[in-house]
């Protein structure tokens, strides 16, 4: 699978609700565990984001333009075309998922 096919597959999977498929049986406990992992990763991202933003006098949060440009470029770039540093950052996130699924293997059977 090349990079474009991988991105297309990801976009397709993001538009589907996997919990509604007929052939997939997932325990609510596993869903909650995965949900916790996802929430924790989202929370870490939001802390990272807010730590880099500027707060206006009225309390609005402003993302510096340089970060907006960088993140927009990264959003539009397939994983395999990212810089080595950017790939490694994503791999660190992937390692958290791999660790999680290894620790929760009993829920996957």
Describe this structure in words.
The chain starts with a helix and ends in a 6-residue tail after the last helix. The model has no long low-confidence stretch (mean pLDDT 83). A two-stranded antiparallel ribbon has the order 1-2. Helix content is 62%, strand content 4%. The protein is mainly α. The longest helix is centred in the middle third of the chain and has 25 residues, at 28-52. It has four helices and two strands, in the order ααββαα. The chain is extended, with a radius of gyration of 17 Å.
Strand order of the largest sheet: 1-2
Return the string of H and E elements: HHEEHH
Beta-strand segment tally? 2
Mean pLDDT: 83
Q: How far apart lie the N and C ends?
A: 27 Å
Major pleated sheet: 2 strands, antiparallel
What proportion strand? under 5%
Layout of SSEs?
Layout: H1 3-14, H2 28-52, E1 54-55, E2 61-62, H3 65-75, H4 84-103
Keywords, please?
109 residues, two-stranded antiparallel ribbon, mainly alpha, 4% strand, 2 strands
How would you summarize this macromolecular structure in one to three sentences?
The protein is mainly alpha-helical and 109 residues long.
């Amino acid at each position: 699978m090349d990079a474009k096919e991988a991105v297309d597959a990801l976009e397709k999977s993001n538009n589907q609700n996997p919990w509604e498929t007929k052939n997939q049986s997932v325990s609510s406990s596993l869903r909650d565990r995965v949900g916790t992992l996802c929430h924790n990763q989202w929370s870490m991202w939001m802390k990272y984001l807010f730590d880099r933003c500027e707060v206006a006098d009225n309390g609005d949060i402003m993302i510096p333009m340089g970060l907006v440009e960088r993140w927009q470029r990264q959003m539009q770039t397939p994983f395999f075309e990212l810089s080595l540093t950017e790939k490694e950052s994503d791999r660190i996130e992937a390692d958290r998922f791999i660790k999680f699924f290894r620790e929760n293997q009993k829920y996957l059977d």
